[in-house]
């Protein structure tokens, strides 16, 4: 089935295309839709068979649960067992927006969505096109990032086409994503609340509403083999270009010295804007050192760009793990398979 179908390219500025996307989803099909974080591969979250097709289209391991997307706060109550007060406080502060909240699930959520877990992840996206498609479908939408499993998440419709053309019913082009990394995932099913994946809403912002929030060790560190995982997504190799990515930790002059003395054919520098001068290798600049939101927005396209340059080895500059920089760090260390070299 996957690989055979014709994938339609729809345009978010055409109202009839939004309705077409909604109709395909209502009928059990798969449509990639824009959100403010990354493109999502959507299916009717209440239809277990439709949801199972997401896993085959992406090549996603079946034990990795999906996020359910809503277009009105009032839809949340039907998807979870109850909404505790601290959950409502968080939602009022940061929804609609790039944050996902995990709570014990209601029986309407099929096991395919939660990979058999008793909790469900819900997100109310800010992106107007995403919300219009949910409204047009008339059901909540389960949607992981719309990439082939293991590849960098898509932040433009062309990225989705590069990975999933022929495997899904349609892609709805709504332009580039504003945030560029996936949503912050926080679970309120444990006490204290726990950050499972950093994103556009920072740990500091969560703490300002919830008080104590623990950071799961998988955010910064590789999982010990056999460790019990709260967020299964963190255990897989992720965000990887075909090239071998190595993070170099140090100042600009030691970065430049290292790259220039360790380069060969196929070496590419992944660096901050304005730092490519003086490097003897091709460079991809992904944003200003001072602006971690810009780095987040451009990171996944930059990881695809090094592949388009046929890179074999990529030496990357990586921000400090603070604020939105924590989200960039979390994605880049996974792309690098946790390979970090500390310079001088
Ligand atoms: O920004 C986003 O969150 C994007 C857009 C499309 O909304 N979606 C996204 O989905 O990034 P995905 O499937 O690529 O990432 C979902 C993450 C995974 O790490 C998964 O393990 C975790 O959320 N997750 C989902 N449900 C969970 C649950 N019940 N318990 C623990 N972790 C869960
Ligand atoms: Mg993903």
Quote the distance from N terminus to C terminus: 53 Å
Largest sheet: 11 strands, mixed
In sequence order, what are the helices and strands, one letter per element?
A: EHEEHEHEHEHEHEEEHEEHEEHEHE
Helix content: 25-40%
Explain what the structure shows.
The longest helix has 17 residues, at 292-308. The model has no long low-confidence stretch (mean pLDDT 95). This protein has helices spanning 15-26, 48-58, 85-94, 111-114, 128-137, 157-164, 203-210, 252-261, 292-308, 325-335, and strands at residues 8-11, 31-33, 40-44, 67-69, 99-104, 119-123, 141-142, 170-173, 184-187, 194-197, 214-215, 244-249, 267-271, 283-285, 313-316, 340-342. 50% of the residues are buried. The protein is 29% helix and 18% strand. The strands form two sheets. It has an eleven-stranded mixed beta sheet, with helices on both faces. A five-stranded parallel beta sheet has the order 14-13-15-12-16, covered by helices on one side. It is of the alpha/beta class and 344 residues long. The protein binds threonylcarbamoyladenylate and magnesium ion. Threonylcarbamoyladenylate is lined by residues 35, 37-38, 40, 64-67, 100, 102, 114, 117, 119-121, 123, 143-145, 182-183, 185, 196-197, 230-234.
């Amino acid at each position: 089935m996957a690989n055979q179908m014709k994938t339609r390219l729809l345009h978010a500025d055409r109202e009839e295309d939004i309705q077409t996307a909604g109709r395909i989803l209502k009928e059990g099909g798969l449509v990639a839709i824009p959100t403010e974080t990354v493109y999502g591969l959507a299916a009717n979250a209440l239809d277990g068979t439709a949801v199972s097709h997401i896993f085959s289209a992406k090549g996603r391991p079946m034990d990795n649960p999906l996020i359910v997307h809503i277009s009105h706060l009032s839809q949340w109550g039907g998807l979870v067992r109850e909404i505790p007060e601290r959950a409502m406080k968080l939602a009022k502060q940061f929804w609609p927006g790039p944050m996902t909240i995990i709570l014990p699930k209601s029986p309407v959520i099929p096991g395919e969505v939660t990979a058999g877990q008793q909790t469900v992840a819900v997100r109310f996206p800010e992106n107007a096109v995403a919300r219009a498609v949910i409204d047009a479908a008339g059901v909540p939408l389960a949607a992981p990032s719309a990439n082939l499993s293991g590849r960098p998440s898509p932040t433009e419709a062309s990225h989705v086409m590069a990975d999933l053309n022929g495997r899904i019913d349609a892609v709805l082009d709504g332009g580039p994503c504003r945030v560029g990394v996936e949503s912050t995932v926080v679970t309120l099913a444990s006490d204290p609340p726990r950050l499972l994946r950093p994103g556009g809403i920072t740990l500091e912002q969560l703490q300002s509403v919830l008080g104590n929030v623990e950071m799961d060790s998988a955010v910064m560190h590789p999982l010990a083999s056999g460790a019990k995982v709260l967020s299964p997504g963190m255990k897989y190799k992720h965000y990887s270009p075909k090239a071998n990515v190595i993070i170099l930790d140090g100042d600009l002059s030691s970065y430049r010295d290292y790259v220039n003395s360790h380069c060969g054919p196929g070496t590419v520098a992944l660096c901050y804007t304005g730092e490519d001068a003086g490097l003897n290798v091709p460079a991809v600049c992904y944003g200003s050192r001072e602006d971690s939101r810009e780095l987040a927005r451009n990171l996944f396209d930059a990881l695809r760009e090094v592949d388009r340059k046929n890179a074999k080895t990529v030496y990357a500059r990586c921000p400090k793990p603070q604020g939105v920089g924590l989200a960039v760090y979390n994605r880049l260390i996974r792309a690098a398979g946790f390979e970090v070299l500390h310079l001088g």
